[in-house]
Amino acid sequence: MMRIWALPVLLVLCGSAVATRLVRGERPGEAAALLVVFLVLAATYSPLIFPKSIGALEAQRRSADDGRPIVFWRPGCVYCLRLRIRLGRSARRMYWVNIWRDSAGAAAVRAANDGNETVPTVLVAGRPHVNPDPAWVREQLRRPA
């Protein structure tokens, strides 16, 4: 769990330190702007902007019932972030599995990617797709199960 929050916490701490130094140098406007940038980066790399993750086994069970895709992801992955942002609200209609929190999810990704934990890996109808185009993923959500 600590690994998930390490980068966001580091960004907040660094931003706070730099902002404090700027405030002491009587540049509060620059300090505030820089702190906002660091806070936005920390939020971007935190797991907060992703839908709630579930376990891989539960996601596979649910996907088998309703046909929704499964997204295997990890915090700090820019490609996962790109997919999440470009999917918008439709991201909530998918099952998200954080491979740093779920060993079965990490194993499923390694099995699909020749031993590598390459994310995002999207499982559609039991077939893995590595770093798919977000438009293609949206199209898969429109198809009937």
TrEMBL record:
Please state every residue range assigned to the domain named Glutaredoxin. Answer: 71-127
Pfam families linked to this entry? Glutaredoxin (PF00462)
User: Which residue spans traverse the membrane?
Assistant: 29-50
Q: Does the keyword Transmembrane apply?
A: yes
List the protein's name. Glutaredoxin domain-containing protein
Q: Which InterPro entries match?
A: Glutaredoxin, Thioredoxin-like_sf
SUPFAM superfamilies, sorted: Thioredoxin-like
> Source organism's superkingdom?
Bacteria
Identify the species of origin: Streptomyces flavochromogenes
Q: Please provide the record's keywords in A-Z order.
A: Membrane, Transmembrane, Transmembrane helix
Query: Record keywords: Amino-acid biosynthesis included?
Result: no
